[in-house]
């Protein structure tokens, strides 16, 4: 079996510009009470730190347009990194699913898995990293990955999903949280992931800046039922526990 190879593990978001950041508002619910209470609203302002960018290594599976986009300025949709309520623990769940089609690379957790099919997607189609990003954002009470990195924006065409996960980790730390533990389940009929699980887990831990001991990865088939079981799609579920620093 061909060896699995890391894909863009060191890629980080391009420089953010504070001049391009706008504020947006979260409306609070108004609750009817006997008297002397009233509704209020507050606004959350974004303060994005600057970060340096590392050139994306050329890879056949990533389009030239995607590489150029990553090397240019990339500014995700504005979000507040501060949760509306500070809790000692926060739990988030993420889910993602992609169609499998010939002619695409199969990238899982930043690792290129040899297979005759890959994920058809706007970015590199990494179902595991997309799922982990949504779990972290969900735990923080933030918009999902599709709102922060919309597939309608050409700058994310062919983008490495390590860009998305590093932004989610940045928002997690900015909100004052760290990863307690992560549990992920991949669902696909083929190929068998047992030869690649440790490489995937190690790379995911590195992207998260976490001890591999707190990152767990499972893989299941779908017993040949529906698109997952017929090798026409791949899905992933992730649960994360965030702890206040």
Give the helices and strands, then pairings:
Elements: E1 5-6, E2 24-27, E3 41-44, H1 64-71, E4 89-102, E5 106-108, E6 111-113, E7 117-119, H2 127-139, H3 145-148, H4 162-174, E8 177-187, H5 197-208, E9 215-220, H6 226-229, E10 233-244
Parallel strand pairs: 8-9
Antiparallel strand pairs: 1-6, 2-3, 4-7, 4-10, 5-6, 8-10
Helix pairs in contact: 2-4
Can you describe what's shown?
It is a single chain. This protein is α+β, with helices and mostly antiparallel strands. Helix content is 22%, strand content 25%. It has six helices and ten strands, in the order E-E-E-H-E-E-E-E-H-H-H-E-H-E-H-E. It has helices at residues 64-71, 127-139, 145-148, 162-174, 197-208, 226-229, and strands at residues 5-6, 24-27, 41-44, 89-102, 106-108, 111-113, 117-119, 177-187, 215-220, 233-244. Strands 7-4-10-8-9 form a five-stranded mixed sheet. The protein has a three-stranded antiparallel sheet with strand order 1-6-5.
- Tell me the major beta sheet: 5 strands, mixed
The number of strands is: 10
Instruction: Give the helix level as a range of percent.
Output: 10-25%
Strand content: 25-35%
Attribute tags:
single chain, about 240 residues, alpha+beta, five-stranded mixed beta sheet, three-stranded antiparallel beta sheet, 10 strands, globular
